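Q&A log
Question type: sequence-to-structure
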Amino acid sequence: MKLMDVKLGQLGSWLAMRDFTPGGILGAIRRGHSRYYNKYINVRKGGLGGLSMVLAGYIILSYMWSYSHIKHERRRKYH
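Response status: OK
Response body:
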């Protein structure tokens, strides 16, 4: 059952059925990658949609990783 088909009351039992071993997590990542690749990258008439999503994700992640440095830099005065 997909996550979008699960009702809020069934969320606990749905999570209990998931495989949280390293092999299960790696399999979920592989399935997600293949779905993304087949939907956005491996198409006949491809556009910039899939690549722009990867770029936007990279920009957001790099901003989150460097946020603490940016936050301290904000209050520094430049003389």
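Response note: The radius of gyration is 19 Å.
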